[in-house]
Amino acid sequence: MRRFIFFSALFSVMTLCACQPDTQPKPKQAAENKTPVVVVVNYPLQFIVESLVGPEIQVLNPVPPDANPETWLPADAMIQTIQQADLIVTNGANFADWVKKLSLPRSKVLRTSLSLKDALISVPDFEVHSHGTGAAHSHAGTVAFFWLDPALMERQAEVIAQRLIQLVPQEKESITANLEKLKDSLKPLSQELDQLQAEYPGLHWFSERPVYQYLARRCGWTMHHLHWKQGTVPNESDWDKLKTMQREQKIPFLLWEHQPEEKRVEELAQHGVNSVVLDPLTMKPAQGDYVTEMQRQLVQLRQFLKQHQSETAESKE
Ligand SMILES: [Zn+2]
Predict the structure, then answer these.
(1) How far is the CA of 42 from the centre of ligand 1 (A)?
(2) Which pLDDT band holds residue 32 (cuts at 50, 70, 90)?
(3) 122 C-alpha vs ligand 1 centroid, how far in Å?
(4) How many domains does the chain contain in total?
(5) What pLDDT, on a 0 to 100 scale, did the predictor assign at position 130?
(6) In Å, what is the CA distance from 26 to each residue of 56, 132, 161?
(7) Helices 290-307 and 43-52, packing angle to 10 deg
(8) Is residue 5 part of a domain?
(9) Residue 22 and residue 157: Cα distance in Å, rounded?
(10) Residues 68 and 161 in one domain
(11) Are 156 and 196 part of one and the same domain?
């Protein structure tokens, strides 16, 4: 009996000891149970991820609401948060400066442009600039605003959904169902573009910089960019270039990313160029969401073209 007590006591001690190492990994386990964090670089990607997942994932768009997601750079604390995220969904085509500047764990980065390789558009004169005192010149660059073609946004959503399922396999069913819902919600945008293409084929447009190429291709339109820097006043040589282009091509419209100054609109009108805004929604709109806001803008664009029927007729080849 005594012996038994001794052994059982020994056994208890042994099991206690055996338990000891178990107490160590507990904090790790707590970390594993933490809500996974998915970082995105712009609002369209935020919209996609939020459409696909629920509260089981924390979606983090680190860009402050009033900052430009293309040029914003994170401070130290945010850099750490981003580096520790479970997944970083980037746009590709150099959309966000911080993606290049930060050292990000490669295995956690999903660059959505990689799934669109066959559909990417590059322009030969992407951005005019000069190095030091060298002459102004340009290099070819890939246009980053893929989502403006809903078919490409759908492909971005598909590749993101796949990756999210790897991250939270237990949510596979709901993510798959949400992906279908998201695709359905993009259909009205596609229909709106079909209508624009049918009613106004072959239009030529100006833009300040390469932004609308995917939308233009979708509608059978051609974009010409002016190389105007955002937020700067065009100088005399900018206007001369515009006049030259106008003499050759007679391009009736300019698509603006944001509401331009009234003065600029008037100056352009004097050169036969009518202004209309189509915000690519890289930042979250004040009202509605990506789909409702893009839909509203496309309807507005069609109304604008209807009001300028005579110019659209001239623009067609
Ligand atoms: Zn250069």
Answers:
(1) 26
(2) low
(3) 16
(4) 2
(5) 80
(6) 21, 56, 31
(7) 130
(8) no
(9) 41
(10) yes
(11) no
Average pLDDT over residues 72-84: 97
* 162 and 44 belong to one structural domain: yes
Q: How far is CA 111 from CA 95, 119, 121, in A?
A: 11, 15, 16
**CA 124 to ligand 1 centroid distance, Å:** 12
Ramachandran class of 93: left when φ > 0, alpha when ψ lies in -120 to 50, beta otherwise: left
- Would you say 163 and 170 are in contact if contact means Cβ atoms under 8 Å apart? no
- From the CA of 260, how far away is ligand 1's center (Å)? 28
For the chain, the C-alpha Rg in angstroms (whole number) is: 26
Q: Tell me: the pLDDT tens digits for 175-203?
A: 999 999 999 999 999 999 999 999 999 99
User: Based on the domain organization, do 83 and 170 belong to the same domain?
Assistant: yes
Q: Is residue 7 part of a domain?
A: no
Q: How far is the CA of 127 from the centre of ligand 1 (A)?
A: 9
Regarding whether 309 and 214 lie in a shared domain, the answer is yes
Q: What distance in angstroms lies between residue 184's CA and the mean position of ligand 1's atoms?
A: 42
Residue 134 falls inside a structural domain: no
Structural domain for 148, as ranges: 35-127+141-174
Which tokens is 112 given? 């959505």
Report DSSP state, residue 125. Answer: E
- Residues 165 and 279 both lie in one domain: no
Centroid of chain to Cα 182: 16
